[in-house]
Amino acid sequence: MELTIHSKNIELNEGVRNHVNRKLGQLTKHLPGIVSATVEFALEPTRSQKHRIVAQVTLKVNGSVLRAEQRAASTTSAINAAADVLDRRIEKFKSRVYRSQRARHTPALGVQEAEQQVMPVTEAEESTTLPDGELVRIKGFDMDPITVAEAAVQMRLLGHTFFMFLNAESGGYNLLYLRDDGDYGLIQPKSG
After folding, report:
1. Which of 4, 53, 68, 178 could form a disulfide with 85 if both were Cys (CB 3.0 to 4.6 A apart)?
2. Predicted TM-score (pTM) of this structure
3. How far apart are the C-alpha atoms of 96 and 90, rounded to whole Å?
4. Ranges for all domains in the chain classified under CATH 3.30.160.100
5. What would the CATH number be for the domain defined by 117-187?
6. Tens digits of per-residue pLDDT, 51-72?
């Protein structure tokens, strides 16, 4: 497994790096197909000292992406919490995709790597007035065509409440979202 560790506004010592290696190494015992892991630590100003350290872990597994983000008072606590969340997501992944009959007979899900290209916002884009905030980041990514069912699985594995994808059946861009009642909604452009 290829491991990359980044930090923003925080200094990481060798002890933290060793702890991250150890925790993520335990995850590979549960799911040996992990190709790479990216860990990002950030120190964010919050009112609560218990939530200042943010740890985001992204795992790439046989064409799918698993992600967890947790906040804590220390880097060690944050990575422990993120690893616990990923452990549960790995179990879901294995039960829904890895062990399913469909996964054995079809190619892996089309992956949308939302973190592939993060483009800085230019001065011209910063001047765009938004009613409730500022445009601070733009993400670009490639989309492989996938079905609505595959998009739902990928959305759940990422832990998101919405997922934009290229629909393999219609050929158009769609947005799948999780409704408050636990069901799904699909937004698609009108044709014609």
Report:
1. 68
2. 0.61
3. 10
4. 2-105
5. 3.30.505.50
6. 899 999 999 887 788 899 999 9
